[in-house]
Specification:
homodimer; Rossmann fold; 3 domains; six-stranded parallel beta sheet; Transketolase-like_C_2 (chains A, B); calcium (chains A, B)
Amino acid sequence: MGYGEVDQTAINTIRLLAVDATAKANSGHPGAPMGMAPVSHVLFNKFMRFNPKNPDWVNRDRFVLSNGHGCMLQYALLHLFGYALSMDDIKAFRTIDSITPGHPEAHDTPGVEVTTGPLGQGFANAVGLAMAQAQTAGTFNKPGFDLINNYTYCFFGDGCAMEGIASEAASTAGHLQLGNLIAIYDDNHISIDGDTKCAFTEDVMKRFDAYGWHCEYVEKGDTDLQGIEDAIKRCQDVKDKPSVIKLTTTIGFGSQLQGTGGVHGNPLKADDIKHVKKQFGFDPEKSFVVPQEVYDMYHKTADAGAAAEQEWNKLFEKYASEHKEAHTDLARRLTGKLPEGWQKSLPTYKPTDDAIASRKLSESVLEAIYEAVPELVSGSADLTGSNNTRWKKAVDFQPPNTGIGQWNGRYMRYGVREHAMAAIMNGLAAYGTLIPAGGTFLNFVSYAAGAVRLSALSHQRVLYIATHDSIGLGEDGPTHQPIETLAHFRALPNIMVWRPADGNECSAAYYVALTSKETPSLLALTRQNLPQLEGSTIEKASKGGYVALEQEKADITLVSTGSEVGICLEAVKTLKDEYNLTTRVVSMPCMEVFDAQDKDYRMSVIPDGIPTMSVEVMSTMGWEKYSHEQFGLNRFGASGAYKDVYKKFEFTPEGIAKRAKKTVDFYKDVKPLRSPINRAFLQLI
Amino acid sequence: MGYGEVDQTAINTIRLLAVDATAKANSGHPGAPMGMAPVSHVLFNKFMRFNPKNPDWVNRDRFVLSNGHGCMLQYALLHLFGYALSMDDIKAFRTIDSITPGHPEAHDTPGVEVTTGPLGQGFANAVGLAMAQAQTAGTFNKPGFDLINNYTYCFFGDGCAMEGIASEAASTAGHLQLGNLIAIYDDNHISIDGDTKCAFTEDVMKRFDAYGWHCEYVEKGDTDLQGIEDAIKRCQDVKDKPSVIKLTTTIGFGSQLQGTGGVHGNPLKADDIKHVKKQFGFDPEKSFVVPQEVYDMYHKTADAGAAAEQEWNKLFEKYASEHKEAHTDLARRLTGKLPEGWQKSLPTYKPTDDAIASRKLSESVLEAIYEAVPELVSGSADLTGSNNTRWKKAVDFQPPNTGIGQWNGRYMRYGVREHAMAAIMNGLAAYGTLIPAGGTFLNFVSYAAGAVRLSALSHQRVLYIATHDSIGLGEDGPTHQPIETLAHFRALPNIMVWRPADGNECSAAYYVALTSKETPSLLALTRQNLPQLEGSTIEKASKGGYVALEQEKADITLVSTGSEVGICLEAVKTLKDEYNLTTRVVSMPCMEVFDAQDKDYRMSVIPDGIPTMSVEVMSTMGWEKYSHEQFGLNRFGASGAYKDVYKKFEFTPEGIAKRAKKTVDFYKDVKPLRSPINRAFLQLI
């Protein structure tokens, strides 16, 4: 079809919106938008299928800007194609409470699929989106009903290419033969330190080839629109491999500083802005200008996308009549609601039931609910047998030609790639049809911290199954024993950190995790066996904290989690026998959920007038919020049989009782002795 | 020279020590030691130069077991070659307080260079060790004095090969043309989930080739000792590239379960142990057997190593006479002590000096001390201009043929590879001649969490220069604004987390960081300007916390860090004017250092009888240890100009005063009102 003047005008319009918005904000990154405007134009106008009026259409093509600092590119495109992002929003770039923040945030901006900016994340999210497409297609497509066939497109730059998370994700995508994933590498040779030759001289395409990707190269990315189009077409034709296009561009194309680090992260100077506008045939005195023919062209494309959605809706209606059950399932999944009554499948336990490790309890939950919750997909970063993340009849998610799985498999083999696993799960969740759970050792969730943070920030319903949760893992020793990990994630906003003490609490953790549409969860689970508690129920534990043992006229409250709750209950007898003290015990499987209960309830659990001591075999940080004194472990652990390790650090009934006695004595003279729940003022939330 | 029976006996002895030790511990990983015993034998006995009697000899060859779960391989070698690791130590494998913990720990076991186990770390440490060798050689070698020319050898497995951190490090090593680095890839096709074909089907050697590595392949790694030797020799001959040998081995070689996941992480069954011993010609009824000829052979090699060290010592004496200054410098560095009087170079500030961002203050420290502290090497993960980590006259550490640096350069260009940077710094520090500092945004230190943890666990003197430390970074927004990060690292044992409030505090942070030989430090630094405080000195700040403003009969103590200390000082006036309250202000730049002061001092800073409120513009977690009430930010931030963001969240004199007033009122009736420093019992440390 060829490209003409209006195409060039559109490209320059995108460039200048980025120039004007960063100048007005006096902050931001004009360079990448100016360099990638041509490929954006070709991709969005010639290839991508989307309806700006319904950014949630499930079969839309997904676009991920992994180099999220270039977000003015994305905001400009969203605006020009007619998403609910106005010119005023563009003008409010990088100002408080705008929908155009400094990096793209999925939760706040229509048309932004995932939250990017932290480098490499978007690339791995794109792999997750493509996996979700393949899994959902494998599940729902039927002969004559190619319902789910969208592409996932991803832009990434040199920074993303250097990040390990992107390497992990690329290797995964190659293994999985994700034919609907097309990534475009902005090879502009510039990162913040200047020319990439100072640190990054590898052959990126050879590396992607090694991962099993189809590789294309477009040399003149600034101008060769037809070459870009042809390359994308060839990528679409490769069905059994993900594709990457290396696109050599000039960062800050058009600026007097083009091709230098000077245009990466700073607005252009006033005279340079005029220079660029003149050069592009725009009025140098005017800002935020969109020629009507650009709106016209893009809105026509948007209309075609809307029409495509209409066609799809008809197909989906027809699907309803021929595949009623599948239709109902998919339609329900898109609402985010779980199937009616699914929670009846959750296992419950009596105190007389066997002691069981909470990682095994978690496995029993998965085994019990996987049929009732078909959108749940599980997986592990190569610790399947240790994380207990796989139900017995699970089918692996694999390309069928591998002979070891199917596209509709619900078990993901992430390999030893914790960070990519987490970011892929963010992509799986963002697709809209799946709820991902993924396992690793709790200590190695830290490898994935960058992506866990984005699960929280972007409100993704993702479950981290984090086993081997303490020194209780024993012999593997300090390199594997978490000390700081729960404190870390408890300090992270919008994530629920669970540490269940028994079977009912474990079921409660899954109940709350799966029904919380906008919040990820981390389940810290033991390697060692735990007894079933006397006072636990799913309902009580679903409040995040509850009284596991109530006593009249108690001298002290012990508040604890997970494997230590049982030891605290044992300590009750020691405290009575040795010190004549009466002890209440509170189990607090999830602080965040407890914090969300009303104050009366919280005060009833941790009341005024009684000293409270926390017991948890890791960093005490954070426990002051719920206790006057803290018994924990603010040093690294030790390698040995777990009972020996617990004994070394005095996490025994005697060790607890000794400290509880000191706590009672210490607070005897304090009047009034307030519950730590009682605070002078509320925190901003 | 060929290989004979005694070589095979030695190899099988190594295998059986791993079999016996894991069986006795009823825990551990026999598979990798059994598979890698042949290459270990060839490498340690034919190539490596080391003196077991002096594991600290600076020019020894370094060995890193990146697949650290196979540590019985390393312990067996250390024992057999005569390091201070006895057969009783082998028998105490994985028991409490042994020097043979579940994964190798550098700080505790002679001959273990770096702490490994968390996958991929050791590989990146090895890159750091090789960089340190190249940098130290570049600095100290002179014509006729090839003082520093050791090799770094690294074993790694499929797990390490999958980890992003290893990808980042491999790309870095290829760029840097590290000819003295030789990595051996245990291609055994098995990881915990079974055959690696379920997740890992990339072409690993093609990938290393893409990074610029020299690649070798030995197909029969179980038996082809000569092939292994020849491959290592060819690698040694390649001087301008790091080398990798892909070695196909059989995991658990000799076991009935060889070649399966069953031998990866579980001891062999009793009958299998007998089977293996019989097969290898050992007495099936005996355990922990070392034929004398094996000791003899290995001790001869060790003696040759000792002799090599003697030769080297002579060369170093001669060096003393011809290059006195360099000799003194190197000899001093090896003691870990800084040059006499270096601290006199630290900048000091008066209250009348300009307001300056603490990232700039940090730059001024580097500028002031780099000549006085020649072992200091700086760098950044591609944020040099933002982290302010580079002194003006710095030379980049680069292969000279790149034309952009020298081997003796002291500035590292890590690229956008935070995790590898941190692990490389652990390797740089472990080498013994350098103190590495490396920068990124505080938020992205989280990408490096796995390696930061090992800085702490393995007692490495590493400095993390973490700029853009809060919502004060402004427009980049929530994706870049740390909330949980300081809580995370404060909860990690053995790391000092600094957040200096002004120039003197910044100098104090460097003073304590550089003089703490066994503890890493993280310096959280602002993007925005900070005033120089009235009451600060290097000496006071070096106590971690001090009274910045004392007042008679104070109604409240405000305790704060970094950018909020100045705002607290402003709030003093607001509190007096609006509420007639008298306010003390404490600056607490480093909690860990404050905790190390005696109790009298700490109580003088945060005394009994006065309510204390903390002010820090991020998670309040951890502040309960020093305050009764906490003003912080337990939600994600916002994108906007930093003053607008501070205002939105009420981090203003008014916002502080309002909450301080509530705190005073709330605690009026509590008697006695104890300082939070006052506790019922001490924590285990």
